[in-house]
Amino acid sequence: SYLGEMVEIVFNHKGTIDKYIGDAIMAVWNWPLQDSDHALNALRAAVQMQKTLEEMQEKWQAEGLPKLQIGIGIHSGPAILGNIGSPRRMEQTAIGDTVNVASRLEGLNKTIGPQFGSYILASETTLEAAGLDGIIKSALVADFQVVPAGETEIRGRLQKMKLYAILPESRVEESEKQIAR
Length: 181
What we know:
Layout: H1 2-12, E1 15-21, E2 24-29, H2 38-62, E3 72-74, E4 80-86, E5 89-95, H3 97-116, E6 120-123, H4 124-129, E7 139-141, E8 144-152, E9 161-168, H5 169-180
Helix pairs in contact: 1-2
């Protein structure tokens, strides 16, 4: 039920499912069809995924099932997309530094996410692609808030990256209390 809901959210926000990696979903935007709002659509999909997960958790809790926590990493940039592999085994996928960085951001949610009460991390590059660059302090954008999450070293990169926590509206007040502590 979880994967079904999440996949529909990706599709509803013009994303493409690349693959499942264990319990993770790798999704890409702006491919195979061009989408000038790809970065904003990816951010909105992530926020909707968090909201839907919260609703699902309430149902699961009532059924005595354990909670599920997800982390989402969003990075924008060039990638190699298409049929990749060998004549014996091909796979339609996305590879490259952009994909690696998004994966690293997803992993950083374990340490950075709890500080903000959100498990969505986006790079400065994504905010620029979404037209949200120049954010110095917290900013509310439509149905989510963008909060600077500091500069962090990313494995495989020489320079630190500026990261931003993306908070669904439902978590904005909760996050402000957490940050104030």
